[in-house]
């Protein structure tokens, strides 16, 4: 389970590994407290001697906790001693193996090992995606995230393929039907914005479970409505389920590193969105005909009316049951559940309002807000409109129109994942500039195909253009959320919530076009809006990364460049002088004096503080060039990019 057999490295408890990746016999984390200091010194000595054998390796300089050097610690605080001792990690391992490819859990995790390789500098997030695994915590969290969103989407749009029957039963107009759809999306706008910061504070698990339960109950009550007002009100309450997207993205982002986040986030959201397609098929072509037959078929009076009212019970019941299962059998993050970690003092409290404010201050957040309204907003609108459009324009029956409309949603099976994957691949070659270019291209192609769909005169042409239209819509969504984790890493939930609310807002505004205009004209206008949004991408500039037309805004990039070519022996000699560590965190600078001597394996921090962000010191999210060490002459020595650096 070593990082790489040919490299020298330490596990999280500071114990060196041999050439075969096996931990040496010096590792014994369960030993008595009075042997702790003695054993730690022995481990460090072993590490020095082992490192001496690797003559061309960089000298190991381990970053130790300040509390390790205190002589007046209480003997009863064994857990804290264990955490601080195992928190020791080597600087050389960080520099030589930025992916953190190991399976051993960090000392403050509820797990001892993981089923996949993780990056300890990113809070034990996984660097791998095993789609056919349900091992806790990473892959189980991934599957619970997308399945929860899948159920929520099925609940949210359960009534959509049956709206033609609802219209006949209640005797209402096309405008009134679209009014109810607008209210359904409006509910999602509000709750998406709220659920983002709540995820930052409480984690996605509880919020996801409560949303599924609270939206499942009104879904089961859909059959009780008898007027337009009641239809709009019940759909507004069901719209709460639309906020499950935020929990899906936040939960997935806590389980996987940013390097693979594009693929992971897009797969989770894409498979979740698939619920919209499945509900079209299941509700429109399976449950509705089944219950209609059960109530007497075409010859029985009001059989259709009774059928759509009864069918809505099924998705609502599934939603409630899955909400309970989600809360009981999953984890908030790789290291365990937020509530227990805070009780043990392993996590600091997070202010909901401070998190929301930090996210809302970013211009990039609002640019992505507008763009996401033109991709997910289009998808929401199309999910509500497709069955009605094919029924009214081409005279298809309810069952046939629902089957054709489901094609749009079925593209989620791979299209959104394709967008995230393309973004990740572009990131490997071109960095953030590659991600932005991919997103811009997909948005432009999406807008083009929406306009083409609006001009398609035949059923076959409409279906063909809808397939490509759907492909680029989902890919745009996937490539957009591949950028989200970079905008404000310490407030990912709030950023995700605000941008997700933009998608739901698009689902409010675009239906107004369909309410007041001919369907074809509405599609054309919607397409031109999407085309215009694609030209906002050049204005997105992520700190520390290149934009489409802007060079990298990285802090002290010249120093970093010089440090990459610093000779290892020269670096070792320079460690005799004091160094200054500058933590560029959240656009603020925190300085802490760091002293270390030649031949020492310990760095002592005099002032390991962080900006007042509400994030505990041992979980501060580093942006761009996170740590820069320089000697008294201002010469660059080394740097660590990205990730989370323990400072506790």
**Fraction of residues in H or I helices:** 55-70%
What general outline do the C-alpha atoms trace?
A: globular
Distance between the termini: 27 Å
Instruction: Indicate the proportion of strand residues.
Output: 5-15%
Summarize the helices and strands and which ones pair or pack.
Elements: H1 36-53, E1 62-63, H2 78-86, E2 89-90, H3 91-96, E3 102-104, E4 113-119, E5 125-126, H4 138-156, H5 163-170, H6 174-202, H7 204-220, H8 228-238, H9 244-255, H10 258-294, H11 303-311, H12 313-328, H13 338-343, H14 352-360, H15 363-373, H16 376-394, H17 398-410, H18 415-430, H19 432-455, H20 459-481, H21 484-487, H22 492-516, H23 519-533, H24 557-564, H25 568-574, E6 579-585, E7 588-595, E8 602-605, E9 625-630, E10 636-641
Parallel strand pairs: 1-8
Antiparallel strand pairs: 1-2, 3-4, 4-5, 6-7, 6-9, 7-8, 9-10
Structural description of this entry:
The protein is of the alpha+beta class and 648 residues long. The protein is 57% helix and 7% strand. It is built from 25 helices and 10 strands. The protein has a 7-stranded mixed β-sheet. A 3-stranded antiparallel β-sheet has the order 3-4-5, with no helix packed on it. The two termini are 27 Å apart. The N terminus and C terminus are likely disordered.
